[in-house]
Amino acid sequence: MQIRWHGHSCFEITNDISIVIDPHDGRSLGIKPPSATADIVLMSHDHYDHNSYKSIRGEHKNVFAFAGEFDFKGVTFTGLPTDHDEFGGSKRGKNIMYTMNIDNVSICHCGDLGNIPEEKVLNKVKGVDILMIPVGEVYTMDIKNVIRFIDIVRPRVIIPMHYRTGGLSIPINPVDNFLDHLNYDVEHVGNEIDLSADELPDGTEVWLFSR
After folding, report:
1. Helix (H, G, I), strand (E, B) or coil at 195
2. Do 43 and 51 contact (CB within 8 A), yes or no?
3. Hey, what domains does the chain have and what are their CATH numbers?
4. Bridge partners, 3 (sequence order)
5. Contact at 8 Å (CB) between 105 and 76?
6. Tens of pLDDT, residues 161-193
7. Whole-number mean pLDDT of the chain?
8. What is the DSSP string of 116-146?
9. What sign results for the dihedral spanned by CA atoms 72, 74, 75, 76?
10. Which of 91, 116, 120, 126 is buried most, with the most CB atoms less than 10 Å from its CB?
């Protein structure tokens, strides 16, 4: 399996199929657009920096903020309903976290998670192998709640996303604000990584992508 970061919250996961999650168009954010071809595009919510499926090549299935379980080309996906803010979604709306299992590696992409989910949602992501989580605060959870959420989930790999990078026009915080609060090892993995289940760490690590 290969994981590639296309900036902001956009990731491409490739094995027998190609999955793109939360695509942006680049131009609207002041960063490079994604360069990816997908079989399926998942979108966590209807904000312009997460829903640009037209920026992705291929005749892909588009799944927009779907809560529930569905299968596509041998992969089972689950959309878990959460909030984009700490007020039950009344301020920024709802958000979907997507989970999937690829090559015996379980992955959760949190979208724009704005608050720690309710217990029945937490129970479905506890112990996930890879957690892709927004850490830029401002429009998502503050660092205190991000840390609490990580402590509950206990993933093997934490992948920060949705933080300030060079050129980004959205006023969110840099990743260092998050890393300064952690006691985990940080691995700089570049723009993409190839991995299998037996290459996952025994404990918890942060994998920091670059672009």
Report:
1. coil
2. yes
3. 2-209 (3.60.15.10)
4. 13, 193
5. no
6. 999 999 999 999 999 999 999 989 999 999 999
7. 96
8. PPPHHHHHHHTT-SEEEEE---TTS--HHHH
9. positive
10. 116
